[in-house]
């Protein structure tokens, strides 16, 4: 049965289809109505704004490495204030809750973050020269989450000379990549164990260091190096 309205014929099937379109927001043959198009446009704009916001936050953050295991976030924050107003500082921890020897600091402005890189890289904090670079992570600060990304980036070195210090290891291995942390292991009474560790920023850097230095001589000792199996 047909209804006649303003010289246009609208069938019962047409009426049903129009009502279904109103309910679902979708036109026949998969064509979305203007309402859905508007929602999609708004969602796209929100996604772009979120991406821009995350990028701006990242530019205001710096990554700090080679921290002492005893350095808390409060000490790190106070030290980094030399470059400007610090919004937040975080020292990463491992899966056991121990300091990972690195962290991130977020400044109020991008310019302050750049100042921190220029001014505080290689500055000494609690007896260790720290390195400061831009934070290359796109995520927000990882507050109170374990820093468990050391796998296959940390190497162990055996047969070090007893005179070796962590600074020597850092200088020796920095040619193969960014050294986040260098340590010479000691006993409880501070005696050198002839073993050390290096944490690189990338797996490829750790592999390059092993390939280049395993079996090489360092100050009269032949070094034995492999990936750390316990990170």
From TrEMBL:
Q: Provide an example Pfam family for this protein.
A: RRM_1
The molecular function terms in GO held by this entry are: mRNA binding
Domain RRM, by residue range, is 60-137, 153-230
**Keyword Lyase belongs to the record:** no
Q: What is this protein called?
A: RRM domain-containing protein
| Keywords in alphabetical order | RNA-binding
Return the InterPro entries for the record: Nucleotide-bd_a/b_plait_sf, RBD_domain_sf, RRM_dom, RRT5_SRSF_SR
Classification via PANTHER family: FI21236P1-RELATED, RNA RECOGNITION MOTIF RRM DOMAIN CONTAINING PROTEIN
Any single GO CC term annotated in Swiss-Prot or TrEMBL for this entry: nucleus
